[in-house]
């Protein structure tokens, strides 16, 4: 007997028919003698509808009320799945975040889980009862208010609950059958990975792969939660195992590059001929940070007049206009000649733990991209990944080029 | 300064535009210096959608899970109205039943309010904050589970909260502008009542008038909550007062009959030639009561053979088939000759506190109905009302006849 957490996303619980299918997946594990906690998202489309209502009621809506509104989506699914499980003879009950409780910070709209009560869930397991837990939501105990964890937060709920109840495994069921070397819609030769290291998955999620919320991978890594990504669309009687996210020691044949990720959510800003004096970078980036604008790639090069410097950096597309307006306001302080911006850019990243022990991995990419006539606007590297910023029109070509270059194509 | 509760039903909060309109009604009272608690229903149609999902997941769904699912509707509206109020500069926050808490019995699906915490709401009033309370829902504290109060339960939430916070007034906003002498869709000459006594309103609600949940009138009567029924579709800047539900002493000009109610939710069952021995009524009605079938009118008359008795009674239409099957099963014990049933029947009732001091009120109705050729299948009377069961096809004719007979027609 094992104890396990099964998480089902919005497309997996999109309607009653799909919820019945989820119940069959749960039944398989219960019949195998396991103790099961299920974490569910809202039915697909519901969260968007609720968010739209909040935005319609007020452009600057109170995030505490937003949380009360959107947390309702998971509440509905948890009750419906409990009913569907009972219908096929499985004892089950729903749990809202505040009932367990899942205690979070008060950062409404993107709260962090601080602790999870395991006592009531444990009593449920002792009664042989499946716990059906509303994902995405929690409670800030000091104020007694509902909180939510941000988009994709149910993944984090699942992994955090797995850690709290010391589950042997956390299965994240989604509409794909695992983690791929890259997006198969762009590269038909993309391969499903049997295993991927926590660190790699963290980079992939951060760099654009949408299969898991970044925070959920962090929690899985810290608490060593053996996490599978697998498909709820598989036959419940005979599903494929999916991709295991695990410690790198558990991966026998380590590739140099494991996957290629890309993010279209990038915008580039360039300040020309900034006076090259100490403190200028701080003058630019401290105000942006204080305005909660997340600056990613930064490049500083000497300007063509050899007396000043050009500074290029990227921000999320949603923050582009706000960042540009701030920079225009700082013109007097910073003293640049021109402010340039571009939103038709994309960030392509290659990720692999093997990079640690292999030199020149990124250099091969720069050459391969140049050979295809792709101009690189910016580069960032870290121990296990590198990213290049390029024109958006080259996205597919660049992803396919790197996917082939690092030997990731399916045989 | 007064303290007041304002309750808005499903059609009053059907979409964001309507919710903005509700915010204007609240603003009027806040601007007048009042402390305001608002109670909201789910957006119209939402509860039906949620109930249908539960029924789709399982015909015999767990009522505890049903409660978790359907309570979400009011949660959404409470958050959205809080946002809409903040948008027009009014400090407001949403409250779920479990946050206040509104403590109820564990009769899931039709729980009764047992007590309401007034402390947190009081703190909110001290902060000059409008409380936006999710109606219809509560918590059973021993199990920590969500409960709901049954259809129309938000009315009861509102009145019970008004009692708990010692409100000066409870305004029930709906899609009509008050309580009428009968349904204006059937009798265009129906008049809006300025005042109606608690006891009369209780009978009207019990006998088919849908303007208020029966339980809410009971609570208002017990706690002497001055309750108005009024329209949310009136101009928020200049609304009409609606109908006041109050003690009978506060009604100056008491009519003999105040209103005519009717209920189509009736079914008739007749057992012919039941052997006329002691205990036969108990043999029939005790099992029905144990099966939670609510028997209403009962008539027993000697059969045409003068040796046995005919028993006729009514049940809600939803219980008709179940009751008939039970009676068929009892055939051996009771020993009737024939079991007859009819669902095309309607119950017409006349209600008025004046009946207490006036004799012959019902007799006038029997004659008037007979004059129109309407056959009476059954009669029940009590101190302040009488009801007749007739063929459904005579509904409108009978209601109009009694409405005119008792002088209720508009001038």
Protein described:
Two copies of one chain form a homodimer. In chain A, the strands form four sheets. Chain A has an eight-stranded mixed beta sheet, sandwiched between helices. A six-stranded antiparallel beta sheet of chain A has the order 14-15-13-16-18-17. In chain A, strands 4-5 form a two-stranded antiparallel ribbon. The first copy, chain A, is globular, with a radius of gyration of 23 Å. The first copy, chain A, has helices at residues 16-31, 46-57, 63-70, 72-87, 119-126, 153-164, 198-206, 214-223, 280-290, 320-329, 331-334, 361-371, 395-405; strands at 3-8, 35-40, 92-95, 102-104, 113-116, 130-134, 137-140, 145-148, 169-174, 195-197, 227-231, 243-246, 259-275, 298-302, 308-315, 338-351, 376-382, 385-391. In chain A, 34% of the residues lie in helices and 27% in strands. In chain A, β14 (298-302) and β15 (308-315) form a beta hairpin. Chain A starts with a strand and ends in a 6-residue tail after the last helix. The model of chain A has no long low-confidence stretch (mean pLDDT 94). Chain A is built from 13 helices and 18 strands. In chain A, α1 crosses α4 and α2 (46-57) runs antiparallel to α3 (63-70). Chain A is an alpha/beta fold and 411 residues long. Chain A has two domains: 3-248, Carbamate kinase (3-Layer(aba) Sandwich), CATH 3.40.1160; 260-405, VC0802-like (2-Layer Sandwich).
Entry keywords:
homodimer, 411 residues, Carbamate kinase, VC0802-like, 2 domains, six-stranded antiparallel sheet, 34% helix, 27% strand
């Amino acid at each position: 007997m094992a104890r396990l957490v099964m998480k089902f996303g919005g497309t997996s619980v999109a309607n009653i028919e799909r919820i019945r299918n989820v119940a069959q997946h749960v039944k398989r594990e219960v019949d195998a003698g396991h103790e099961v906690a299920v974490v569910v998202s809202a039915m697909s489309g519901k969260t968007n509808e609720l968010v739209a209502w909040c935005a319609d009621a007020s452009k600057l809506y109170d995030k505490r009320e937003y949380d009360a509104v959107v947390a309702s989506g998971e509440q509905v699914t948890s009750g419906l799945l409990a009913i569907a499980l009972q219908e096929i003879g499985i004892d089950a009950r729903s749990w809202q975040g505040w009932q367990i409780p899942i205690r979070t910070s008060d950062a409404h709209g993107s709260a962090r889980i601080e602790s999870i009560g395991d006592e009531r869930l444990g009593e449920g397991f002792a009664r042989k009862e499946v716990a059906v837990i509303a994902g995405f939501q929690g409670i800030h105990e000091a104020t007694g208010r509902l909180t939510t964890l941000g988009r994709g937060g149910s993944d984090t709920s699942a992994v955090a609950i797995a850690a709290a109840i010391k589950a042997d495994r956390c299965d994240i069921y989604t509409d794909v059958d695992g983690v791929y070397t890259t997006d198969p819609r762009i590269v038909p030769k993309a391969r499903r990975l049997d295993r991927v290291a926590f660190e790699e998955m963290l980079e992939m999620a951060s760099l654009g792969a949408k299969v898991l919320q970044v925070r959920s991978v962090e929690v899985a890594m810290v608490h060593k939660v053996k996490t599978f990504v697998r498909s709820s669309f598989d036959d419940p009687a005979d599903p494929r195992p999916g991709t295991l996210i695990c410690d790198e020691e558990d991966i026998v044949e380590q590739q140099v590059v494991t996957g290629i990720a890309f993010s279209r959510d990038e915008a580039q800003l360039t300040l020309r001929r900034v006076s090259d004096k100490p403190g200028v970078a701080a003058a630019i980036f401290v105000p942006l940070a204080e305005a909660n604008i997340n600056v990613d790639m930064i490049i500083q090069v000497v300007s063509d007049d050899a007396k000043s410097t050009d500074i290029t950096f990227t921000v999320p597309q949603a923050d582009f206009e706000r960042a540009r307006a701030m920079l225009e306001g700082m013109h007097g302080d910073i003293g640049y000649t021109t402010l340039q911006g571009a939103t038709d850019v994309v960030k392509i990243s290659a990720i692999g733990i093997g990079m640690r022990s292999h030199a020149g991995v990124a250099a091969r990419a720069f050459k391969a991209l140049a050979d295809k006539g792709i101009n690189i606007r910016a580069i960032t590297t870290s121990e296990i990944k590198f990213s290049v910023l390029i024109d958006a029109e080259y996205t597919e070509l660049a992803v396919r080029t790197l996917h082939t270059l690092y030997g990731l194509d399916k045989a």
